[in-house]
Amino acid sequence: MAIPIIASKLTAPPVPAAYLSRPRLDRRWPEWSAGRLVAVTAGAGFGKTLFLADQARRHPGGLLWYSLDGQDADPETFCAYLLDGLRGLASAPSGGRTARPDPGAVSPGAEEALARAIGYLHDAPPPALIMLDDAHTLAGAPQVLQWIERLVRFLPATATLVISAREPLAIPATRLKAAGQAARIGAADLSFTAEETAQLFERRFPGTRLAGDSAHRLAELTEGWAVGIELFLQSLPDGSPETVSRALEQVSASGERWFDYFAEEVVAGLCPRTRDFLRRSALLPRLEVRLCNRLLGIRHSGRTLEELARRQLFTFPVDGERRQYRYHHLFRDFLRRQLEQRTPATELRRLHRRAAAALAEGGSLADAVALHADAGDHQEALRLIERGGDGLLEAGQHAAVERAFDGLPDDQFRRRPAALRVLGRLRDYQGQWREAESIYDRLVRRLPRGAERAELLRRMASLRLRRGEYETGTALCRRALRELGRRADPRRGEILLLLGVAACEQGRLAEGERHLNEAAALFERRRSDLPLIRIAYLLAANVYYPRGEFARAKAAARRALVGARRAGDAVEVSRAVGVLAFVTAAAGEAREARELATEGLRLATAFQHRHAAAFCRQVLGRCALLAGDLSAARQHLDQAQQFGDQAGETDLVLYPRLGRVELALVEGDPSRAAVLAAEALRIARAQEDALQEGQCRALLGLAERDARPRPASRQWSRAEEIFRRIGAAYELHRLLLLRLASGDVPATEARRTLRELLLGTGRLGHDFLFEILEPDRGALVAARALAEGVEPERARALLLRLGEKAVPPLAELARSAPERVRSQAIELLSRIGGRGSRAALDDLASSKTAIGRLASRAVEDLGRSPAVPLSIEALGPLVVRVGDRVLAHADWRSRRARRLFELLLAHRFRWAPRDQILEALWPDADPDRAHNNLRQSVHILRALLEPDRDRAGHSHYIVCRDEAFRLQPGEGYAYDVEAFERGLAEAEALSERGVRSPAEEKLKQAIGLYRGDFLAQSPYEEFAVAEREELRDRLLRALRRLLESEARAGRWEEWLLYGRRATTLDPYDEAIAAGIVRAHLRLGHRREALAAYQAYERMMIRELGVLPSAEMRALADEAAQLGARPTARGRARPADQTDGSDGGPCAAATRNATAGQSSLAARPAV
């Protein structure tokens, strides 16, 4: 629901012609407003609003005025108004007017709103001025105050926030004051002096003068209180000294009641019709002409209000078109007291109801509810809540709804089920789930059968499912469906959605899919987008993923992500990104999963979606595990598990634990892995989660396999039963691979199991189990299938793709298998090539048997190596050296030939099938043309590399065999990619042995080889993407390790050198960005530290719409404290705030404290 935007609240009030400008305040205003924050704090009636309106009128830059009231204590309302005004400010021309507000706005989440606000301010005409008037209405709104505090810390250098309030607000400003960036204007500043009081008198009574002693006495008696002086002057019939003297005596005699005394004098001097207008209209929260006409049953409210403003009777226009006015707060309170004292109770109640009705008709339901609640008319408040409470809740105006229920005894609800339902929803929104469920249950017992009962049962089911009570939640959903019967009702889709989730969580995937698809069909007919987004990622995570249908899972998650982005729903975007990252990681696509999870974590952290953030950390832990980065894996998994344990969220209690089991296995600690797996199994069984129980048993069996083979086999058998029962094909295939590789499958079942695994993985696209997740075990199983003749062509294809990982089991087959299998193994070794294959074939060739002769021929084929080895540099622009000849990028005579060479290079000297080459290089050409292109390209490439070769002779560099091609670099070749990888591996080995200094040197040497991205001159070739991204990832991980070493050693200059290089690879990585700020701080470079922070902040806001974390902002605060800051726009500081240090261009440091991390109540106030 859109929040209605009242334009006058975002318009600075006009300054009356009779306003007395005070030069002493005008002279100080440039000093006060030079910093980041101005706190104007004085009681009612000191002239804060008019003084600020006068400054706003003359302000040269962008201006946002925001008149606050009680409704703005709601965070959603506050953010909607502020963003609407700032959006107009960002599009306004220099000169400061804001664009006209939209009639309605939807407020985003707090973090997204803050990022948008800062982005708008960066684009606003400088200097930008934000004025929050009547901010004391936010005193009981800690969420809004916290948001304002963070806004202050993030304000650009060209912006100033002015907060006008009757009392100090709990917004910390200690750092700002210390840096000369916060000013305070108090009652002592705003109080009228005797001279100014005399000027007011002369304005009121032209041609007369107020005697000096009388001016001093009036200023003293009123304490310079502007409204008191004005009221005193309004009550004087003339300006004679005698009249003034008598009035001063009356002020002295009246004591504290003198305001009411003189206000009554002023009102008594008006005609009865005007008096009645003043008292009755004071009920309204704002004086809109149409509202006054509606309340009072008249048509001339506009003229009356204009006359009151003209006579300066504490009535002020708040918009230039004079359609809305306001009374001074004190005057309004006085008028309301008079109304209550002089009006019978029945008439007063009737007035309240008419005022509330007028407000409700104008769309101000929250104001109408508040009016009834303030009058103690809770029945009427409840009536309005029954009518529009749902809309208020959806608009985020929870405070207004809460206000209607405050102080109501329980018996008030007995005959008000609609109001009770709204109260239940309110408690649900507030996270008070058990109280919400109790309310829903009371209503279910009271209401007759039908759609309302169905909705309540659905809500109760949702609450139970959140707590993992699936059976109870399912039963409640079925009751809800019975309540609906056969009627077409939008609630049916929501109930089916819940049933689908519950069924999936209990392992009934087919049932869950059916329910979710039925719900989707209903929502599609009704064109309800957000539910369809949820269903898409629920299908991906709860149905397609456990089945192993990863292509469908990724497609559904991507569909959800696109829909969420189109809808602009940040919460759903972060959830969809997290699900897509999860299923991508499960499919072994670690690089893409890591990028998605990093994006999801960045969004979730910025928008404070802790569940989504923990989910993304769990995925990042999985990716780090696949990449062999065990330290990062442990860090991410521990953080995800910590949140899961705190929140009791099912998946995040178990999945990080399963990741830690795998981590312990990789580290070679099966005992610890078994303990962790047993703990996870107990949790999974208690939660009755079949899929996760099977996963726990599979890992427990793996951990116990060597120490306790029989219990391990039982665990695997039980896991297999579970996976088969629930249809979890992916987990079943992984388990079968483990069992086959470990020899846990009986000989009588081996052939059947092998066939099931090979056919199933081929059908569902699970080859990544062999190639990425379990390459060593996969090679053993594929070699066994080849030996036993089970799906031999499939086994051969897998072994060829496994490459060097397949060499050990193939060498064993070539030594000991039957002759038919041995010859196949030798042929595959020859096809795979490389040093490992060459060594295995050399060993076999020493035999005098037929197999030895076959191996000798294979060695001979491999040995047809060119006399001159190639030297290849592919990290950066491609450079190929053939002896003394150098082929740089510009030296290739044929683009086709160069692309073919690059493609073969991307295959790492392994065989590239002809069909893959044709598809990669000429995907749109007809087959004959594509084959002809390939023949020509091969011919040109061979001629380029071997210009002296006989055309009919054998090519040493480009080898063709069995419809496949391979680049043969020659013995002793040099390839910078392999040198880079070899250097990283050597550095890792030295580091594991504790030889730190040589490890760092080796790491630096390896990093030095990385001149640029792989085949940098061909950035759009798809065949190079995987290799390029993998190498970039390896470089980034190496840089991170090196940065850790440099930080430990305190070599901050070196840190900056490598840190800047790391940012070119991942500019969004906050850890690296924060490290650059920290390194500058350690070197004493305060300006550079702040500049680095500001550049990162601007990039995050403009490109991602989020802000840096609290930890990052704390570093900028640290930089701000190292020295004095200059004023934001080069203006002088107030003398009482100068700290005496030299400063520098550190424009935006103090906006980066760890906002929101501790209680606001404990902080010093502005």
TrEMBL record:
GO-annotated molecular function: DNA binding
Matching InterPro entries: AfsR-DnrI-RedD_regulator (IPR051677), BTAD (IPR005158), OmpR/PhoB-type_DNA-bd (IPR001867), Sig_transdc_resp-reg_C-effctor (IPR016032), TPR-like_helical_dom_sf (IPR011990), TPR_MalT (IPR041617), TPR_rpt (IPR019734), WH-like_DNA-bd_sf (IPR036388)
Top-rank taxon, per record: Bacteria
Record's keyword terms, sorted: DNA-binding
Domain OmpR/PhoB-type: 857-977
DNA-binding region listed in the record: 857-977
Pfam families registered for this protein in UniProt: BTAD (PF03704), TPR_MalT (PF17874), Trans_reg_C (PF00486), WHD_MalT (PF25873)
PROSITE patterns according to UniProt: OMPR_PHOB
Region described as Disordered: 1121-1166
Compositionally biased intervals (Polar residues): 1151-1160
GO biological process: phosphorelay signal transduction system; regulation of DNA-templated transcription
UniProt record similarity statement: Belongs to the AfsR/DnrI/RedD regulatory family.
The name this protein goes by in its record: Winged helix-turn-helix domain-containing protein
Organism: Eiseniibacteriota bacterium
